[in-house]
Design brief:
OB fold (Dihydrolipoamide Acetyltransferase, E2P), alpha/beta, Rossmann fold, disordered N terminus, binds FE3-S4 cluster, seven-stranded mixed beta sheet, five-stranded mixed β-barrel, binds iron/sulfur cluster, binds S-adenosyl-L-homocysteine
Length: 495
Amino acid sequence: MSPSANHIPYICKANAKEPMSELIPDLDILIPTDKNLEPEARISADTSTGKQRKLYIESYGCQMNFSDSEIVTSILLENGFDTTSQAKEADLILLNTCAIRDNAELKIRNRLVHLNALKRQKPNMMIGILGCMAERLKSKLLEEEKSVDMVVGPDAYRSLPELVEEVSDGRKAVNVILSREETYSDITPVRLNSNGVTAFVSIMRGCDNMCSFCVVPFTRGRERSRDAHSIVAEAQDLFDRGFCEVTLLGQNVDSYKWESENGELKVNFAQLLEMVALVHPDLRIRFSTSHPKDITDEVLYTMKKYDNICKYIHLPAQSGNSRILKLMNRTYDREWYLGRIEAIRNILGEECGISTDSITGFCTETEEEHQDTLSLMDIVKYDYAYMFAYSERPGTPAAKKLTDDIPAEVKQRRLSEVIAKQNEHSLERNLLRVGQVYKVLVEGTSKRNEDELCGRIDANCMVIFPKENLKKGDYAMVKILSCTAATLKGEVVSA
Ligand code: SAH
Ligand code: SF4
Ligand code: F3S
């Protein structure tokens, strides 16, 4: 099938019908042909073990937040709650929130209007705000949103059972203390929305980078790495329970650094990757997010050494212009970034999937500087991109020191240009794959057609193919027959 213009969908996760596995924040990507597909919030499923109270948890934002909701659920299941998928049935409603851009917070404010209506019908219902918006606004949220009973930051989830009791006693409860140690490493997450095949394993928390536009260091606190043994044990346990792929999560996985208490064992990210890869050759490993300043050749060689480490790197550039990168405090310039891309291509070859995050209209960005982002894209030819218009976040270094001076229409127009370019490149990259045979891990049935399965190739592209006798969790060799910018279509050549 040759790709036709109306077959070229937009490259955006909001449009993806299949599950995605990157560390991706809420998607407010604007696409000219967008059907306004809002990213779905993840909600809890129904469990019924005879507990007295019901928890409904709805999660927004990035994969770290989804992963945290699994920890929160685990804590509350141990403390007298079952989960429900129906907010109206809940005794406790938790919204795990994101603060990365203004519209992420707006979404939560709108959601609270609906939940207020529910609470009017069921006055004993408790509503709690978790996550990054809770951390950013702290007790101000209680003042601004009268229906909210509880505000809990990302490092305070262990205190949830006590906070719930406080609220049950008629008080409002807040815990937004950030920690330098908390990694929840001893808590086994309860997998929510799981396909039973792929799972996320948090390897670190927080971020020390201070990119000037970013609220994360303020909402998630200092960077800390989780005990390497507990990560390997979690990966082993997932494999033993039938999972076939783990994605190691952190805001900057390349700065993972853990030392045993006696100082005898020191583990960096490349070593951790190796430890997890050794769990079993049939367990696929992915990771996100890599930082261009920190990704080492050692990581790239470790990826090359193990077949089960997927050849895919999410390496956000943010901008292709060195002056803007400096203002963003990304601590690398265009040349450094391109040097890292060259290293990836030299060590892992053309097949390795590469994706980026891009911000348009950052403070003082000129038209020429925007063109540098487009020209960087032309050089790298990303497989995917997550693209955003700059949204000033109160309290960040950019908000304090720089002026958000690019008009909204200009930011949006630049964003459309970046998106259009990415669509071309995604299609170009996928077309190279037509005719090739790839190993695919079956993730489930395609949402569009019951007779088809979906799964990913190493480079993270989604492939749709006829079911044959395969099922979730199987590996299959699939020949690619056609593609759009977003998806590959193929047929099984051997299982
Ligand atoms: N730790 C990851 C990214 C986390 S946030 C990294 O360093 O790449 C995910 C993405 O959201 C960022 O890469 C950036 O592209 C985007 N983003 C963050 N703050 C933003 C802001 N204020 N306005 C627009 N986009 C932003
Ligand atoms: Fe934010 Fe930068 Fe940290 Fe990523 S590395 S979370 S963009 S401060
Ligand atoms: Fe993630 Fe949003 Fe927080 S992107 S770290 S949930 S601000």
